[in-house]
Design brief:
Blueprint lengths: L2 H9 L3 H33 L7 H45 L3 H6 L2 H43 L1 H7 L3 H38 L1 H6 L3 H48 L1
Helix pairs in contact: 2-3, 2-5, 3-5, 5-6, 5-7, 6-9, 7-9
Length: 261
């Protein structure tokens, strides 16, 4: 089975929390779109000759803020329940499978790597899955809603804005491939850190007998440095993609503003 489909099957075990999370993100996206319309109404009021400020605009902003807050909390909280539920189930199933494996398997694999799969990898995988679903649902609803809203205002300028979409898709694809590659490297690097640390703790008497403290210290420092390096590469890739996308969007918005004004 495809890994993504398998992860989604775990998500379906928590249908109620997932459903409430979806509702929360829909409310959050709707409030953001309403806030855009509220700003448009305020600008229209400022440019008009009206002197009486509508109480409905004041109340609307309060309700928008309340709706956005409720949507943000419920969407993120219930999606976290799904994520932690996946972690729980993955760890339990992995441990049950691991405990039944023959001795030769444990002889052929480092204990640190095995422990790392239960403690670190499960958290990373489920976290990535829940964050991906969260981003897809929350930003997806917001994007669709804003597109519909913009089309209702001016469909020609909206089409002009969509010119950047293929370029953004390419950047997301390239960044996603690199992030997946780095995630696998980080998994191995973290396993090495766990393995070296567990060896140092379990074999502490032997290390002292052979005066191997410096050797083990160097091993751990090297493994720890490799893990740090890979994590920094991951952060650089993930944080570089966002400003590049924002630059493309800003350029397209500038073009739209030029033709609109």
């Amino acid at each position: 089975m495809n890994p993504l489909k398998r992860l989604f099957s775990y998500t379906l075990r928590f249908k109620f929390s997932f459903f409430l999370s979806i509702l929360g993100f829909i409310l959050f996206a709707s409030a953001d779109i309403a806030a855009v319309e509220w700003i448009r109404q305020i600008i229209a009021y400022i440019n008009s000759d009206k002197t009486d400020f509508s109480i409905y605009l004041v109340l609307a902003l309060i309700f928008i803020a309340i709706g956005r807050g409720i949507g943000f909390f419920s969407g993120n909280y219930f999606m976290s329940r799904v994520g932690f539920g996946i972690v729980h189930d993955l760890r339990s199933e992995l441990f049950i499978k691991l405990i039944k494996l023959p001795k030769i398997y444990f002889d052929q694999n480092q204990s640190g790597q095995l422990i790392n799969r239960i403690t670190f990898t499960t958290t990373q995988v489920s976290g990535a899955a829940s964050n991906a679903i969260k981003t897809l649902v929350r930003e997806g609803f917001l994007l669709v809603g804003l597109m519909v809203y913009m089309f209702s205002l001016n469909w020609k300028l909206t089409l002009l804005l969509l010119i950047t979409t293929p370029f953004i898709a390419i950047i997301v694809y390239i960044a996603g491939r690199r992030l997946r590659k780095l995630a696998k490297t980080i998994q191995t690097a973290m396993g090495d850190v766990t393995h070296v640390a567990s060896e140092a703790v379990d074999g502490n008497a032997e290390i002292k007998s052979f005066n191997a403290e410096k050797y083990e210290t160097d091993r751990f420092i090297n493994a720890n440095a490799a893990n740090k390096s890979q994590n920094l590469k991951l952060e650089a890739t993930s944080n570089l993609a966002t400003p590049v996308i924002q630059l493309l969007v800003s350029v397209s918005l500038s073009i739209v503003a030029y033709f609109a004004l």
